[in-house]
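Reminder: ligand-aware prediction takes two inputs, not one.
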Amino acid sequence: MHYDIAIIGGGPGGYAAAIYASKKQAKVALIEKGELGGTCLNKGCIPTKTLIHSAKLLQDIKGARGFGIIADDVDIDWNVIQKNTACTVKNLKKGVENLLKVNGVEVFQGLAKLRDQNTIKISYETEQKTITAENIILATGSAPITIPIPGHKLQNVITSDEALFMEKLPSSMLIIGGGVVGLEIGYIYNTFGVEITIVEMLSTILPSQDEEISKELRKHMEKQGIKIYTDAKVKEIKEKENILQTFFETKEGIKTVDSEKVLVATGRKPVVDVFIDTGLNINKTGIVINDYLQTNIDNIYAIGDVTGKSMLAHVASHQGLVAVKNVLGEKRKMDYGVIPSCIYTNPEVAMVGMTEQEAKAKYNDNIIIGRFPYTASGKAMTIGERNGFVKIIAEPRYNEILGVHIIGPQATELIAEAALAIKLECTAEELANTIHAHPTLSETVMEAAFDLLEEPVHKI
Ligand code: NAI
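Here is what comes back for the chain with NAI:
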């Protein structure tokens, strides 16, 4: 049982690396202690986006009368929504299992521990196995952070691990953290009629996003009935007759909100427990790696959330491919310069490149911004989704695009063009002079580029 590459962790980082390495003729072992597909497939991206599809469908049906479609007495069946989510996860997992199988990856179920830099011990129930490998890739992912406040262990205080698979809908939920997890889960449950309160410690929701976009999203979420507190730090959770009371400090003093559930969505931490005392260099953010994704031990690489670089599934998968290339002798640096990030609320949010704040800091406030509102888009008008705008930021010398921020329908799809534009060091002229099909939402990106050049046609 000797392999060219052994990969610990079967999430989107680990399984993508395994399949890619196998296609490159390497002999590969993949070890997973839980479910193949990791957080993304089982407890993250996929179940969330399936639930979000049901939520959006409900909103669309409720708004259908204006389009001449009469669908009164619309209701939801939470059991079917949950079954559909489980079914989507199951089918995708079968797909991953099949891909691993047909590509000849040997999958081991169990908890892997490093014995030395070439030896892995695998434990599953009472069974123990030992395998060896020339190279090892660590891809053990991350887990939700819990906050050490009184009451954080109460039964109805949950994390995203439990929030997506609840047997019945609660009447109310307070969410600690106005980041991506808090906002997506808040959007889902609010749409299904759950009273949602979001409590964010910093002065804005989505603090890492462009400020203008965060403000716009907050406006829409509040309009949908979500209560949001910012500059608010949770101090304690108490339980009184099956109701949770959350106490948080605001500028106006301590406030209390009662709810059936409290969701802690305050970030994630790398899963490194099995690597303590192995000689690997580990710090607060995760396993330390160089540009080639190599740890301090030459033949051991690390990818994905466990490296704490950028906790996104698509970054993990890309790191997986880069790590395999390096293992196989093709020296390749990991480039974190162009990473799109998407938030699946309604309206959707997507960004790539620099925020306005970052661009101003880098270019001494000397930047150019173009904007285009969805209200001026023909396609947005036809589908009745006119909230939001596209914002493009460029530097003044060549009008090279530095950042693109979109809030509005299909933002998460539109961002791919912007990512390619930034990757290819595209200028606003090149983007504006690329003919975009009409009528499409993609025209909003082209129009924002024209606005940046002060040549807007469809904008006053
Ligand atoms: P996050 O780091 O995005 O947001 C956590 C928020 O909680 C921050 O705004 C922080 O200021 C706030 N916070 C921390 N402690 C607090 C306290 N005591 N009281 C009030 N607020 C507090 O973390 P999140 O949302 O849990 O997401 C984890 C990771 O998963 C992120 O890296 C995210 O990008 C990723 N993710 C990506 C998704 C996507 O691509 N659509 C979906 C979900 C998660």
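The longest helix spans residues 78-102. The chain has a mean pLDDT of 97. We will return to this case in the review session.
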